[in-house]
Amino acid sequence: MVRKLRLAMAQINTTVGDLEGNTSKVLEYVERAREQQADLVVFPEMAIPGYPPEDLLFKPSFIRANLDAMQRVVDGSRGITVVVGFVDLKGDIYNAAAVAHDGQLLGVYHKMYLPNYGVFDEDRYFKAGSVCPVYVVNGVHVGVNICEDIWYALGPSAVQRDAGAEVILNINASPYHAGKLAFRERMVATRAADNGVYVSYTNLVGGQDELVFDGGSMVYDQGGELVARGPQFEEDLVVADLDVDAVLQHRLRDPRPRKERPILSSVGASKLVFHSEHTPAPARPALDGCIVEPLDPLEEVYSALVLGTADYVRKSGFGKVLIGLSGGIDSSLTAAVAADALGGENVVCVAMPSRYSSEGSLIDAKAVAGNLGAELLTIPIEEAFEAMLHMLAEPFSGTQPNVAEENLQTRIRGNILMGLSNKHGWLVLTTGNKSEFATGYATLYGDMAGGFSVIKDVPKMLVYRLARYRNEHGSPANVIPASVLDKAPSAELKPDQTDQDTLPPYDLLDRILEAYVEQDRSYADIVDMGIDADTVGRVIARVDRNEYKRRQSPPGVKITPRAFGRDRRLPIVNRYRQS
User: Fold this and answer.
1) Cα(297)–Cα(544) distance, rounded to whole angstroms?
2) What is the rounded CA–CA span in Å between residue 246 and residue 470?
3) Mean pLDDT over residues 427-431, rounded?
4) Which of 64, 60, 66 is nearest to 16 (CA)?
5) pLDDT band for position 259 (50/70/90)?
6) Which residues, in sequence order, are bridge partners of residue 26?
7) CB atoms < 10 A from the CB of 223, how many?
8) Which partner from 142, 255, 346, 354 sits 20 to 30 angstroms from 285, CA to CA?
9) Is residue 350 predicted with pLDDT exceeding 90?
10) Residues with catalytic roles
11) Angle, nearest 10°, between helix axes 329-342 and 359-372?
């Protein structure tokens, strides 16, 4: 009789700290898996407490409540095996996976490799595990491990394979950045082929502060071939039948794992724990795994921005958002993302013209709001600007107009937005992009004022590509007028101003910023790329001296491999300079 394991991967959207809501969702998907006659249903890393729980883990009451919630999932596991992420407490706390069947807790796996780089800080909270359990589910040997564990060639998966595991279940809360799905898939395919096992990679979905989790759960077979893949950026139950007998056939033909045993023992193979479940697999029609095609690169990034914005607003308890709509490309793209995330009826735009605002910008702002179905308020700032200039006339006397007068205007606008926010309970979305935040081309308490920064991690040239993508693929189409895309970017804070009065052309600026910020390349390295030395020096100086601004900026959706904030942590007071 051919051995088949029907596996269900539940890529769900959880909320940090919502133990009741997360547990109810887990139990809902357990029932859905049961209806699909699955033998086994797997949930993401930390599905019960949400990920990352950060310093909630210092609260004993939170740990205990999470354990109570885990027990509810165990109680709900009748007739099916459930693997779910939670926080375990055994003298210390562990990032853990519970394995339950028929109302009993069969065992617990403790994550062994705790990441402490990029956005991760797990060494701050957890103790590393030391045991690699293998379970028997309907006659199939199954190893369970967590996220980072799968990235190591001689890690828990190899130990479990050596102990007879035919299927490896890896549960994840793997944050998104552009191109990461393909990177994960290459790794999972390699682990499956090298170990001669099925590898299931179940990933979280949803936004949590600046992080977005993109799902894309997958299964690869013992030959490194894709069996099933879930959608990106949406919840789903991904179900596939695994032909486990094919694993044995593969191993008989491939002697490499036999020769690796001495290597594994030298790195510390862990104690094995077996729990047997002998219930025969039910008769059921065969089920082919569904393979959802990945999104193209621009659709992927745009989807991340939409999901990250929707979840931040929804999970924070807001109903509507507020955007200062200038008629420029950044605020237009931000408004489009917000409307796609929340519905245009939940987006309020505010045009705040000054003496320097062009008529074209006002026309464009009205067009964008109208195309998106968003409300547009028009509140001129001239009266307030005049009052501020009059109030500051004496201390400003004897000086020439400069950035002080320019920033008065943007701070007036920030006050207007925050006043409306306070009055109506709307969340302010700021509209600055990564190129601006990198160089400090933004005003504290002005255009940086707000609760969430949608395109904070989007370089300027990518802003243009995303705007064109939205015009071509969104509904309705062409929401951002061609005039917005074609005109020279300007803050319109003084006569005939353009961004390039202060900054290099954005295509050049973004090349420098990618090299310096994301790749940590030196001044000399960047000059060697063929870029003017003076320009490189000026950009690096702007990046270095504006760390204080970035520390005071709102969170925003991470879409690049190295975002400001969690990913890149530099001291504000810092005298190291490159030249």
Assistant:
1) 30
2) 45
3) 97
4) 66
5) low
6) none
7) 13
8) 142
9) yes
10) 45, 111, 147
11) 10
Would you call the peptide bond into 353 cis, given omega within 30 degrees of 0 as the criterion? no
Instruction: Choose among 181, 239, 168, 186: nearest CA to 215.
Output: 181
pLDDT at 264 over 70: no
Structure tokens given for 550? 């970035």
CA angle, 129 as apex, 125 and 133 as ends, to 5°?
Answer: 145
- CA 442 to chain CA centroid, Å, is 24
Which segments within 192-351 are labelled E, that is strand? Answer: 198-203, 205-208, 211-214, 218-220, 226-229, 236-243, 276-277, 321-324, 347-351
- With contact defined as beta carbons under 8 Å apart, do 81 and 87 qualify? no
Region at 457 (left for phi over 0; alpha for psi -120 to 50; beta for the rest): alpha
Distance of alpha carbon 557 from alpha carbon 211, whole angstroms: 6
Give the H or E element holding residue 375.
strand 375-378
* Contact between residue 77 and residue 31 where contact means Cβ atoms under 8 Å apart: no
Using CA atoms, how far apart are residues 549 and 119, in angstroms rounded to an integer? Answer: 20
Whether the per-residue pLDDT at 256 is higher than 90: the answer is no
CB 518 within 8 A of CB 562: yes
- Please return the burial class of 324, using the count of CB atoms within 10 Å of its CB with bins 0-12, 13-18 and 19+: buried
Return the amino acid letter for 101: H
The two tokens of residue 457 are: 């991690």
Report which residue type is found at 297.
Answer: P
Which of 113, 107, 116, 117 shows the shortest CA–CA distance to 86? 107
How far is the C-alpha of 558 from the C-alpha of 253, rounded, in Å? 44
CB neighbour list of residue 91: distance below 8 Å, 6 or more residues apart: none
The HSE-up count of residue 411 (CA atoms within 13 Å, CB side) is 12
Residue written as token pair 């006397």: 397
For residue 108, give both structure tokens: 């617990």
Rg (CA), the chain: 27
* Four-residue CA torsion sign, 421, 423, 424, 425: positive
DSSP 17-47: T-HHHHHHHHHHHHHHHHHTT-SEEE--TTT
CB-based contact 135:42 (threshold 8 Å): no
Please, are residues 145 and 175 in contact by the beta-carbon 8 Å criterion? Answer: no
Determine the Cα angle at 223 with ends 219 and 229, to 5°. Answer: 20
CB neighbourhood size of 75 (10 A): 13
pTM value > 0.70? yes
pLDDT at residue 72, rounded to an integer: 97
Query: For residue 511, how far is the Cα from the chain centroid?
Result: 23
Mean pLDDT (whole number) for 156-172: 94
CB count in 10 Å sphere of residue 484: 26
The residues facing 4 across adjacent strands are: 243
CA geometry: angle 435, 437, 441, nearest 5 deg: 85
**Tokens linked to 545:** 């001296």
User: Averaged over 335-350, what is the pLDDT?
Assistant: 97
Q: Is residue 275 scored above 50 in pLDDT?
A: no
